Hints:
By secondary structure, the chain is of the alpha+beta class. It has helices at 10-21, 31-38, 43-85, 89-103, 132-135, 144-152, 171-180, 212-237, 241-274, 279-290, 316-325, 359-398, 409-418, 440-454, 474-489, 507-523, 538-543, 549-567, 571-580, 585-592, 596-610, 617-632, and strands at residues 108-115, 120-127, 138-140, 156-158, 184-192, 195-204, 293-298, 303-307, 329-331, 334-341, 344-352, 427-434, 457-461, 464-470, 493-501, 530-532.
Amino acid sequence: MAGVREPAHPATARRLLDLLAADAPAPQLDGPLERARAEGAGPAELAELAEATEAARGIHRKLAQHRRREAELAALFDTAGDLAALRDLDAVLRAIVHRARTLLAADLAYLTLHDPAAGDTYMRVTDGSVSARFQQLRLGMGEGLGGLVAQTARPYASTDYRTDRRFRHTDPIDAGVGEEGLRGILGVPLRVGARVIGVLFAADRTPRDFTPDAIALLASLADHAAVAIDGARLLEETRGALVELNAANDRARAHSEALRRAADAHDRLTDLVLRGGGMDDVAREIAALLDGGLVVHDTDGTELARVGAAPAAPARHVVEESRAGGRAVPADGSWVCAVLAGPELLGSLHLVRPAPLGNADRRLFERAALVTALLLLLRRSVAEAEDRVRGELLDDLLTARAPGDSRDTGSLLLRARRLDVNLARPHAVLVLDCADAGARSRLLTEAARRARALGGLAGARPGHAVLLAPAADPGALAARLAADLGHALGGPVTVGAAGPTAGPGELPDAYRRAVRCADALKALDRTGDGADLAGLGFLGLLLGDPADTRGYVRRVLGPVLAYDERRGTDLLGTLDAYYRHGASLTRARDALHVHVNTVVQRLDRVAQLLGPDWNTPARALETQLALRLHRLGPAG
């Protein structure tokens, strides 16, 4: 029947399972699908078989990864055992180099040792080399890749050494490397304590990009190798070297266990994130792994999750120290690790526990920060997608609708409810602008964060960002946002506000008033400030709704009007006479037919009601305009 999907034949699915159980090569997994196609299976069955085949390939890759990891760990343990059983230094060195070549599947492996007398390193053992010149190389400190590893005690890798200008090339080194035909080279230090005794290398004759896993594996082998070399030397001098070698093996096993534990923890945390776990889930898992309390913060110190610890935000300089070094750092009995995505700071982890944090746990803590970064990036992607939807709704809300427009109020309210935005509440429209055009993308990101926290919307408009949020006092919200966003961006942010609105239909007009308010703030040299039109005084009256003269009079003369109403006095008449007669006490006295002291006393009361600056030029202008509008009454 058309439209009904034919189920895959059970025997074919069973065949895939049999191939997986038999550890068949990956190409053989396509066999059942090819057979079904040859037998004329229907499209639905072929599609289902294709999905099953792809799932089988994923399982096959996962099994291969686990086998490879088990093989590497087993090889490290075998290496430790082999080295412990050897007593001859040359045999130890040959075993190290051969195992390094085998584990990394490299064309060549070799080892150089430090010569304290000459102050350089010399080629000691090679495996896979065909060049006599290469086998006799000596590398001065800082020369070539190996000399730099020996000098800095840090691993270095080069995808193609011949063209890599990061290293100091010399003619003898380049000649030896060229004769051997080497391209990709990885070198790690052989360290005994703080002392570098040599360098262990793996190299290919073709360009090769060494992965972090390969570097870590060779470094682990180098740790074993360094211990074994030192143990062999000591065994040649004293019987007590046997004790030292056993201790070295114990350290190697502990190191391998630490690597296994770190890898297992990384897998558990990554799987948790990919299964949709939230920040609280990840924080609980990290706290359990490290046996302590954990607090997760974002970039501005806001707490994202907390498990088994009191609220505490690490000092900014501690987070910056961790960010600069890329490592966890101690801070007042606790540990802090910056959560980074490349150079970008996404947040921080604050670990509190009574026991000291050893090197293995410290690396585990740092690995947990990487997984936390992955989760924050995933959350950011989701938030950005949601912000785009919110921005589209905001555009429709702020655009004036013509008759017959399909974006009716009902559909807008429905779309807003789906985003948990209640447009029935009074809302303020805020226009946000920063002087630095390069920071506008960050301003939009911060505005979106504030909008989500306030239960509103944010989006971009030409030249500025717009934020719509529930607010009964737009001016106060604008001032607070200007201060907060200016601090977050490190530069002035000007915020003009309008509202509160009584429904979606008033939003386009409110947006236009907010734009005029933001422009007025910049024209008045109040860049970096936030206000609504009411906060701009008579200029706000001119820029805003001309019909709101009553509101302007109340804002300017409200305390005096209320006093006269309560007490039955006429302070307003005295104030009016004072200004109408050129701010002259004598002429106001004559007009009011009272003693001059009475005028002074009344004006002192006005000063108490309006503030000590009531008669400054700016306030006097506001007051006289309000008095004139009051005299005009409703007709004004």
